[in-house]
């Protein structure tokens, strides 16, 4: 099957810099899968997101080599406006996401759809659905700038989902959120996966990645150093050397329980393993 998104030998250097911050990165994303992306600070995760969304090189300029393609078509065949309908992107900083031209959460969610020329009745129906899905009904009439960081993050995500893109890039979507709201975002991710979306999720909370992702990718100093099934990657201690983390329970089991056929990734799995060995 053709990958939905494909990167080949991507190398990127910011304007006025001499060293590339993305260095020969290649990978394919399969449609309908959730990819968790981890790695150290400044390893190039956000830069990679900008490349996949077409913001690099169109907005940031700099020097981009290699090929990015969406369903077999080079990304630079389309401009960033056209790509919005196919690739959604929620920024690491939710403040950047709010358009600044709309006075209410309701209008903010509809804004991208207006730009794509979606029919009014369809637009209203979709906004209503999203307000419920993202638990934003009570905030519908509020000014997006008067929301908390977490609420902004939910509005930003709702505005993206509104455009019904096939690929959704989320750069640390839960960084402003408490544990309950973080779980809520992961439930939405599960819902989006069920709807067939491909999700590229940069996120440090590995316990949740262990539960929700199909695959994990590890970035280190501008390179993609590991990519594979969630279980394979998140039980591999090399992740720690690359500046990533492993689930607490997995680390504990690796240290305390010695060699096992299957290393537990979640508390539930650890519990079963402990019962089995008792
Ligand atoms: N606009 C820019 N101009 C020049 N260098 C930049 C720019 N933006 C980022 N960089 C550099 O590129 C490298 C990768 O940064 P990037 O933000 O992609 O990393 P990251 O993995 O997302 O980090 P974090 O975990 O802190 O979010 C860093 O060394 C950073 O200083
Ligand atoms: Mg980042």
From TrEMBL:
<dbReference type="InterPro" id="IPR003439">
    <property type="entry name" value="ABC_transporter-like_ATP-bd"/>
</dbReference>
<feature type="domain" description="ABC transporter">
    <location>
        <begin position="5"/>
        <end position="246"/>
    </location>
</feature>
<dbReference type="InterPro" id="IPR027417">
    <property type="entry name" value="P-loop_NTPase"/>
</dbReference>
<dbReference type="InterPro" id="IPR017871">
    <property type="entry name" value="ABC_transporter-like_CS"/>
</dbReference>
<protein>
    <submittedName>
        <fullName>Energy-coupling factor transport system ATP-binding protein</fullName>
    </submittedName>
</protein>
<comment type="similarity">
    <text>Belongs to the ABC transporter superfamily.</text>
</comment>
<keyword id="KW-0472">Membrane</keyword>
<keyword id="KW-0067">ATP-binding</keyword>
<keyword id="KW-1278">Translocase</keyword>
<dbReference type="Pfam" id="PF00005">
    <property type="entry name" value="ABC_tran"/>
</dbReference>
<keyword id="KW-0547">Nucleotide-binding</keyword>
<dbReference type="GO" id="GO:0005524">
    <property type="term" value="F:ATP binding"/>
</dbReference>
<keyword id="KW-1003">Cell membrane</keyword>
<keyword id="KW-0813">Transport</keyword>
<dbReference type="InterPro" id="IPR050095">
    <property type="entry name" value="ECF_ABC_transporter_ATP-bd"/>
</dbReference>
<dbReference type="InterPro" id="IPR015856">
    <property type="entry name" value="ABC_transpr_CbiO/EcfA_su"/>
</dbReference>
<dbReference type="InterPro" id="IPR003593">
    <property type="entry name" value="AAA+_ATPase"/>
</dbReference>
């Amino acid at each position: 099957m053709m990958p939905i998104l494909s990167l080949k030998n991507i190398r990127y250097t910011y304007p006025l810099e001499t060293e590339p911050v993305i260095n020969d990165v290649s990978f394919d994303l399969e449609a309908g899968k959730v990819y968790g992306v981890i790695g150290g600070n400044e390893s190039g995760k956000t830069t990679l997101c900008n490349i996949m969304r077409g913001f690099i090189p169109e907005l940031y300029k700099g020097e981009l080599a290699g090929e990015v393609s969406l369903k077999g078509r080079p990304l630079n065949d389309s401009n960033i406006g056209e790509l919005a309908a196919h690739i959604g992107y929620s920024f690491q900083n939710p403040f950047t996401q709010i358009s600044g031209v709309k006075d209410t959460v309701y209008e903010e969610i509809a804004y991208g759809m207006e730009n794509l020329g979606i029919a009014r009745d369809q637009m209203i129906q979709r906004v209503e659905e999203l307000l419920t899905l993202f638990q934003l009904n009570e905030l519908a009439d509020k000014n997006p700038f008067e929301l908390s960081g977490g609420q902004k993050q939910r509005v930003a995500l709702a505005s993206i989902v509104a455009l019904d893109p096939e690929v959704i890039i989320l750069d640390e979507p839960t960084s402003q959120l408490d544990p309950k709201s973080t779980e809520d975002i992961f439930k939405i991710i599960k819902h989006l996966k069920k709807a067939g979306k491909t999700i590229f999720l940069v996120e440090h909370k590995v316990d949740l990645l262990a539960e929700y992702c199909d695959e994990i990718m590890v970035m280190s100093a501008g390179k993609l150093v590991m990519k594979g099934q969630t279980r394979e990657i998140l039980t591999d201690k090399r992740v720690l050397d690359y500046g990533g983390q492993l689930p607490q329970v997995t680390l504990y089991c690796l240290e305390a329980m010695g060699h096992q056929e299957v290393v537990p990734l979640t508390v539930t799995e650890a519990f079963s393993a402990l019962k089995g060995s008792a």
